[in-house]
Design brief:
Elements: E1 6-9, E2 14-17, E3 24-30, H1 37-54, E4 61-67, H2 75-85, E5 93-96, H3 101-111, E6 116-118, E7 129-131, E8 135-138, E9 144-148, H4 155-166
Parallel strand pairs: 3-4, 4-5
Antiparallel strand pairs: 1-2, 3-8, 6-7, 8-9
Length: 168
C-alpha cells in the first residue's frame, strides 16, 4: 500500500494525503528545473491524462507529481510548469510538495524509494539533482499495482495497465 504521507498542493493551497482518494492514481516524482528525465515522466502522465479525458474516464483517474525540490518548486513555479508542460490542472492533476528539503528526503527517498542527490555547482541557484525515475500506478484502494522504473515510460502500456485496473 502507499505510505501514509500528507503533502501540500501549493497551487490549490490544500493538504493532500496520498492514497486517500477513491480513484486510480498515477504518481511520479520530479523537479521542475530538470531538463532530461522529468519532462519525459510528466509528459507520459500528461498523455495518459489526455487519453482519460478523451475516453471519458477522467473522473475515476487522478494524477500526482511529487517534487523533491521544495526550495524552488513553489505554487507559482509549478503553475508555470503546468502551462509549459501542457498539463490540465482542472482535470484531476496535482503537483505535491514536501515542506522542506529534509521532508523531501523523508517522503520521496525514505517512504517512496526514489533516490535523489543534489549537485553542488559553483552557482548554487543552478543546482540540479541526480535521481532515479519512478512512476506508480495505484488502485482506488491505495495499493500499488505497477511500478514503472524507467526514464521513458511507455504511455500505451500505462493506459493498458490502467484499463486493467479499472476493470477489476
Amino acid at each position: 500500500s502507499l505510505p501514509d504521507v500528507t503533502l501540500s498542493d501549493p497551487i490549490a493551497d490544500v493538504e493532500i494525503t496520498v492514497g486517500d482518494d477513491d480513484r486510480d492514481t498515477l504518481m511520479t516524482f520530479f523537479y521542475s528545473h530538470c531538463q532530461s528525465v522529468c519532462p519525459r515522466l510528466i509528459s507520459a502522465l500528461r498523455n495518459v491524462q489526455a487519453n482519460a479525458i478523451e475516453e471519458n474516464v477522467i473522473d475515476s483517474t487522478a494524477f500526482q507529481a511529487v517534487t523533491f525540490d521544495p526550495e524552488r518548486d513553489d505554487g507559482d513555479r509549478l503553475r508555470e510548469y503546468a502551462d509549459r508542460m501542457n498539463v490540465s490542472l482542472a482535470d484531476n492533476w496535482q503537483f505535491l510538495r514536501p515542506d522542506s528539503p529534509e521532508h523531501a528526503q523523508e517522503v520521496v527517498m525514505d517512504e517512496f524509494g526514489v533516490r535523489f542527490e543534489r549537485t553542488h555547482p559553483e552557482e548554487m541557484d543552478m543546482y540540479m539533482f541526480a535521481h532515479s525515475a519512478l512512476t506508480y500506478l495505484v488502485n482506488s484502494d491505495g495499493y500499488i499495482e505497477r511500478a514503472y522504473r524507467t526514464k521513458s515510460p511507455d504511455t500505451e502500456q500505462i493506459i493498458a495497465d490502467l484499463q486493467t485496473v479499472r476493470e477489476r
